[in-house]
Structure formats: structure tokens, C-alpha cells
Amino acid sequence: MASQGSSDKEADYKKLNITNDVTITRNDLPLHCPTNVSALWCAHPKVYLPIEKSKDGTARCPYCGTLYHLQD
Q1: Is 32 helix (H, G, I), strand (E, B) or coil?
Q2: What's the short name of a Pfam family annotated to this entry (predicted)?
Q3: What is the pLDDT of residues 6-34, one digit of tens each?
Q4: Nearest C-alpha neighbor of 46 from the set 32, 27, 59
Q5: 18 near 41, Cβ under 8 Å?
Q6: Is 61 exposed, middle or buried (0-12, 13-18, 19+ CB in 10 A)?
Q7: Strand, helix or coil for residue 68
Q8: What's residue 69's pLDDT?
Q9: What is the pLDDT of residue 2?
């Protein structure tokens, strides 16, 4: 039988960013990586990404390589 602590850990593992391609909206700005839904244990230092200033509406995280797309 799993304890409550172990189920919390399992839920935390599900927060791991397993995709490297994320679409965001203007409601998500200012964009930072890792996002607020990422698990704390696997987080890198927070970096703000100026996606709204990019010509093609994309920004790539220098730490984890996640590519963000700004959807208008």
C-alpha cells in the first residue's frame, strides 16, 4: 500500500517537462522557464525569455532547450 507521501512524489514526477515544444498565449507573459507548472526538484535557474520581442514569435530556453511559441 502506498503512503500519501509516495503518491505526492508520483504526482510531482508528472510535472516533469517531457516536451520541448510549448505554445503560450499573451496571458502567459512575461514568459519564464521553467514555468510555474514544472516540478521544483528538476528545475533549472529561472530565466525570463523575451518572446514578445522576437521576430518569429519563438524563444528557446538556454538551459533546457524548450522551444516556446507565442500564439496570438
Answers
A1: strand
A2: zf-CHCC
A3: 556 555 555 555 568 899 999 999 999 99
A4: 32
A5: no
A6: buried
A7: strand
A8: 96
A9: 47
